[in-house]
Design goal:
Layout: H1 15-20, E1 23-30, E2 36-39, E3 46-51, E4 56-59, E5 69-72, E6 76-80, E7 86-89, E8 98-105, H2 112-116, E9 121-124, H3 131-142, H4 149-170, H5 181-186, H6 190-199, H7 207-214, H8 218-229, H9 233-250, H10 255-261, H11 267-278, H12 282-288
Antiparallel strand pairs: 1-8, 2-7, 3-6, 3-8, 4-5, 4-7, 6-9
């Protein structure tokens, strides 16, 4: 008798994804802000802000994908996964009540999670269970300069981001998660298949194998996958493998090595798949980089 597929709570939906596409946080600011503070939209730059106490108004330009004006009146996390200019008005001017970091995602805006997230996640701190310990360590580390402060603060921001992502997976509707990868990882059955793809990209995945991993029939799996992620299972598998291939090629691996890792029968088959997704051959794409 085959074992029962694990429940979503037993599936680690983030580790394989973030191990292959890492994120690095860098402490940018700690302490009070005065007047209006502008954060520019620089290519590849993401922000994670923490308002510990007090009130603050946040504004964005029209058409930016975020509210024109946002009034914060309680401790809040503000996460901008993609470049988006924003201004803080009347932030707390006394005490160390505000910290922020820049985030570098491997692949920039091509990072799978960056593509799946909304333009802004504004999350009251009180809603995230267990986050208080991380914030206590973070603010204790940023209140005065000590050896290794920036390095340790960056690591704590990375922990904070992981806790925020966990919350989004557990509360997709409250987090305004749109169709895409995050919605798929929040799905009780699709998450099993997606985690399998992320952990074993070189496996001989077929529609039947993916459906079996999800504990669904092929027809139900294909329909639910497309409705939740906005693409077919085959298209997602291709996009995932090509994203991994681009990372490996940038790291200096040869085409044949990448081909072997991702389960393609030959370098020619890999090149055709790559060109189908990117529009050019792996070598031509790498030269353009």
């Amino acid at each position: 008798m085959s074992p029962k597929p694990p429940e979503p709570a037993d599936v680690d939906r983030l580790s394989a994804l973030l191990e292959r596409f890492r994120v690095h946080a860098h402490l940018l600011h700690t302490g009070p802000l005065c007047g209006v503070t502008h954060f520019a939209a620089a290519p590849g730059r993401a922000f994670l802000h923490v308002l510990r106490r007090g009130q603050m108004q946040v504004t964005h330009q029209a058409g930016a994908g975020a509210p024109r004006r946002l009034q914060l009146s309680e401790p809040t996390l503000l996460f901008y996964p993609r470049p988006l200019a924003h201004d803080f008005h009347n932030a707390p001017q006394e005490g160390s009540d505000f910290v922020c970091a820049t985030l570098d995602f491997d692949g920039g805006e091509r990072h799978p999670l960056v593509q799946a997230l909304p333009a802004l996640v504004a999350l009251p701190i009180a809603e995230v269970a267990g986050i208080e310990q991380t914030l206590a360590l973070l603010f204790a580390e940023t209140e005065r300069v000590r050896c290794g402060q920036r390095l340790l603060a960056g690591r704590l921001f990375e922990v904070l981001l992981l806790q925020l992502l966990r919350w989004l997976l557990d509360h997709p509707e409250a987090g305004h998660v749109q169709p895409g990868l995050l919605a798929g990882l929040a799905h009780p059955r699709l998450a099993r298949a997606l985690t399998g793809l992320h952990e074993r990209p070189g496996h001989g995945w077929t529609l039947a194998a993916m459906a079996q991993a999800a504990g669904m029939s092929r027809s139900s799996f294909a329909a639910e996958f497309h409705a939740t992620l906005g693409m077919t299972p085959g298209a997602y598998l291709l996009a995932w493998r090509v994203s991994l291939a681009q990372t490996l090629l940038r790291q200096g691996q040869r085409v044949q090595q990448v081909c072997d890792q991702l389960g393609y029968a030959s370098a020619a088959a890999f090149s055709r798949a790559f060109a189908q997704a990117v529009g050019t051959s792996p070598r031509a794409w790498l030269r353009a980089q």
